[in-house]
Every structure is written in structure tokens, then in C-alpha cells.
Design goal:
Layout (H helix, E strand, L loop, with lengths): L9 H10 L28 H4 L18 H8 L7 E4 L5 H17 L4 E5 L19 H10 L8 E5 L10 E6 L4
Parallel strand pairs: 1-2
Antiparallel strand pairs: 2-4, 3-4
Helix pairs in contact: 4-5
């Protein structure tokens, strides 16, 4: 049995009008872009010799902070550096994502940012593997660490790790950049 609405009286409508008189209409949110946003090309070049003057660059390993002083390492591991930029790779194809990562990291370094996040997402599970169908499949999640260790980006980065779950967890990379001098 359905509940019937009582008949509205003019007093009800006056009361309703009084109740909502201070309510302001908010503007609708802009629609998200359908295609990934292209980052602008970097106009300033980076002198990698100036970015890193050390003897040897060891490959970056997830969570490794051996090459950082103790206070900075502690602050990094606790994710206490404020995030000054983020790049969301959802919807990107591999080549576009690679260009976006290179441009984003280099432009962040040039603009003096210290801490950035790259969001790859966690990928889908592999349903074609009956033994372990929950094996992570995210290709960008696999490629980003390789790109960060490349000759063009490695001298700009001190360390990277997965942030806490509220910042993306294993579907993101919390990256500490060298100081731009």
C-alpha cells in the first residue's frame, strides 16, 4: 500500500518559501575532460650535470632512502612533505603517459617543487590466470618506476614510495625531487 501525500495548503507553501529563502543555488561543476589533458612542452632545458653533481647514481628502489639525510628520509617516509603537484594517468595510453611523466617531473623540478605524486591506478586483476587471478595487471604502474630510473629523470629524483591509502596507496607514487639550484 503506497503512502499518499497530504494536500498542500497555502500555509505549507509559505512555510516552505520561508525555509528556503536564504538558500543559494550553486554553480554546476565543469564536466571532466573526455581526453587526457596534454601538458605543455618544457621550454627550459635541464642541465643534468648541474642537477646532480655526485659520482654515481644508483637505481631508485621503492622506499629506499639511503641516499638522503636522516631527517629528510624520516619526513619522506612519513609523507610529511606537502604535495606540490600531481599527475593522474587514468585514461592515458603508454606513449602519452610516458611523455606526460617526463614533462611533469621535469617541469616540476624546473619550477622548484620538492614533492609530487603520480597516480597510475592499481590496474585490473588478471582473470586469464586461474592460479592467481588477483595478480596486478596495471601496465603504467609497472612502467613508471622504469621511467623514473631513466637517464633523463633519475638525476632529478631523490626517492619515491607509495603514499598512504588516502593519497592513492599502491596506485600512486610519492616522489621527492632534488632541490633545483
Amino acid at each position: 500500500m503506497s503512502k499518499q501525500q497530504p494536500n498542500k495548503t497555502p500555509e505549507d507553501e509559505d512555510a516552505w518559501a520561508e525555509a528556503i529563502k536564504d538558500v543559494k543555488k550553486i554553480k554546476p561543476q565543469a564536466e571532466p575532460p573526455v581526453a587526457p589533458i596534454k601538458l605543455p612542452e618544457i621550454k627550459k632545458t635541464i642541465n643534468l650535470a648541474q642537477a646532480y653533481r655526485g659520482e654515481d647514481l644508483h637505481p631508485l628502489i621503492m622506499g629506499n632512502t639511503d641516499n638522503i639525510d636522516a631527517n629528510t628520509a624520516k619526513k619522506f617516509k612519513r609523507c610529511e612533505f606537502p604535495i606540490e603537484g600531481n599527475l593522474d594517468l587514468h585514461g592515458y595510453h603508454e606513449e602519452d603517459a610516458k611523455d606526460a611523466v617526463f614533462n611533469f617531473v621535469q617541469s616540476s623540478y624546473i619550477s622548484g617543487k620538492r614533492c609530487i605524486i603520480i597516480i597510475t591506478g592499481k590496474g585490473l586483476s588478471r582473470e586469464d590466470n586461474p592460479d592467481n587471478f588477483l595478480t596486478p595487471k596495471g601496465k603504467l604502474r609497472e612502467y613508471v618506476p622504469l621511467w623514473l630510473n631513466g637517464n633523463e629523470l633519475r638525476p632529478l629524483i631523490l626517492a619515491y614510495n607509495h603514499p598512504p591509502a588516502k593519497l592513492g596507496g599502491t596506485g600512486a607514487f610519492y616522489i621527492l625531487l632534488r632541490r633545483h639550484r
